[in-house]
Amino acid sequence: MSAQRVTVIEHLLSQQNAIPTATGRFTHLFNELILSAKIISREVRKAGLVDALGFTGEINIQGEAVKKLDDFSNDILLYRMSKSGVVCGMASEENDDIVLVNNENSTGDYIFIFDPLDGSSNIDINVNIGTIFSVYKRKSAASGDVCKEDFLQKGTEQLAAGYVLYGSSTMLVFTTGQGVYGFTFDPGVGEFLLSHAQMQNPQSGNIYSVNEGNRSYWDAQICNVVDAMKIDKNGTPRSLRYIGSLVADFHRNFIYGGIFIYPPDNRDEKSKNGKLRLLYEANPMAFLAEQGGGGAIDGKQRILDIQPTSIHQRVPLYTGSQDDITKILEMMSSAG
Fold this sequence. Notes:
Number of strands: 15
CATH topology of the largest domain: Fructose-1,6-Bisphosphatase, Chain A, domain 1
Number of helices: 7
CATH class of the largest domain: Alpha Beta
Strand content: 15-25%
Number of domains: 2
Distance between the termini: 53 Å
Strand order of the largest sheet: 4-3-5-6-7-8-9-10
Oligomer: single chain
């Protein structure tokens, strides 16, 4: 079958022998995820024509104003995944606590963790945004309710992770631990079709991505690291590219090569560990990065090795081409 005609489900079915987790129930989870992505993509594309832009007036658990599309996307994913019959619990960046799923006729054994609409501060100006997701297997006994420990698993325990990018086209990029695959939505047939097989992050690149407007809040060590990333290994100046939407910045650097940095800063207590969340953003992106030949660290250690202590835990993130990750680790280590 031509690669251009392979759907996500066909791909999962063809990989079942190599992917122990790709059971019928796992595939059904992806069916619901795909439907959610289609619905969200439709709303994103017509947002300017309906009352879907602006704020709801609410503040989420992160202390951020909630956008209307944020709220809509969160509701869609919570509803669709709860109806799948295979998910026992969910955690969303928009919800204070975990969400238990109780289905009368079926028992789910998957944990679904997601950021419904990453980069939502860019919604009103029509910049790329995305949905980030992560899938785990529950650890607690199936006979009882899911507990917080089921969510506080290291990133190495992820069964699948990925993102949906809503841009000039809608694209689903994910890994099940067997490489990274990209599927582009074809509205003519209503399916995500394989467009990028075995995606690889270049070993090095000429892009660095960081919000340099925060430089005055960084310590000297981080300033030195960022300055070092402005020049490639051949001494050539790199290009600064920063969108402020993690999905968009990560996707560009994953294709072209380069480094994305969101370090800790000293502006307030909340920022001392950076802005990004370990479960909703860093772990899924780290899984993708490593599966594509790149890396992801917090400045000291591998992101996937961090033991979570809370569902909304923040963490610094350095992710991208392996040459850059290696250099950053060397600089951080030598500086103590």
